Amino acid sequence: MTVIKQTKYFIYNSQGITNKEVNINFTIHSNNSIHIIHRAYTTQITQHRQGTHATKTKSAVQGGGKKPWKQKGTGKARAGSNRSPLWRGGGVVFGPKYRQYNKKINRKEKALAIQSCLENRNSNIIIMNNDFIRDFSQPKTQLILKTLKNWGVNNQNKILIVIKTKNQNLYLSTRNIPNINITLAQHLNIRSILLAQTILISVDSIPIIERCI
């Protein structure tokens, strides 16, 4: 069973001053949502596994069609193929085979996991006004560093910035800061939320996050 939990946040400008508030409605599980978050996380990370590992069995190894020596009379152990797993250059027994590790998760369950995770991380969330994005008329790394300092955010920590639309100047401004990750609201994923120590969300991306369920 799901419930809607409303959380109030202050909206900050680039100077670190706040004079407005906004409410975010998170749709979360009525009980513990840890199992849903775990399912969403494992589903995402397994989709990055290639699964192209493979070895050749006795039947797949080239050669070995002729019996190396006759069955009896040589004093040696009987052998039917020089591609037996007992031989050097032979096949592999019970080796890894190609497989797909992909798991499936329902769309609504994934959205529920994202909102539950955000609600659990509410103390690490900072809401920034839309003017902050518009300030980047050109790439300015010093501006983003100064703004983070005004917000009391350590730029050595992992920071996730969630915005509504692409902003090339903002991307170029943060490209030289290794711990900052920028994502669009519609592409928000569970792994990015869990890895981030601070989450910055623009005001105009809040409706997209609320509508993801």
UniProtKB/TrEMBL annotation:
<keyword id="KW-0687">Ribonucleoprotein</keyword>
<dbReference type="InterPro" id="IPR023574">
    <property type="entry name" value="Ribosomal_uL4_dom_sf"/>
</dbReference>
<comment type="function">
    <text>Probably binds the 23S rRNA.</text>
</comment>
<dbReference type="GO" id="GO:1990904">
    <property type="term" value="C:ribonucleoprotein complex"/>
</dbReference>
<protein>
    <recommendedName>
        <fullName>Large ribosomal subunit protein uL4c</fullName>
    </recommendedName>
</protein>
<dbReference type="GO" id="GO:0005840">
    <property type="term" value="C:ribosome"/>
</dbReference>
<comment type="similarity">
    <text>Belongs to the universal ribosomal protein uL4 family.</text>
</comment>
<feature type="region of interest" description="Disordered">
    <location>
        <begin position="47"/>
        <end position="83"/>
    </location>
</feature>
<keyword id="KW-0699">rRNA-binding</keyword>
<dbReference type="GO" id="GO:0019843">
    <property type="term" value="F:rRNA binding"/>
</dbReference>
<dbReference type="InterPro" id="IPR002136">
    <property type="entry name" value="Ribosomal_uL4"/>
</dbReference>
<keyword id="KW-0694">RNA-binding</keyword>
<keyword id="KW-0689">Ribosomal protein</keyword>
<dbReference type="GO" id="GO:0006412">
    <property type="term" value="P:translation"/>
</dbReference>
<dbReference type="Pfam" id="PF00573">
    <property type="entry name" value="Ribosomal_L4"/>
</dbReference>
<keyword id="KW-0934">Plastid</keyword>
<dbReference type="InterPro" id="IPR013005">
    <property type="entry name" value="Ribosomal_uL4-like"/>
</dbReference>
<dbReference type="GO" id="GO:0003735">
    <property type="term" value="F:structural constituent of ribosome"/>
</dbReference>
<feature type="compositionally biased region" description="Polar residues">
    <location>
        <begin position="47"/>
        <end position="60"/>
    </location>
</feature>
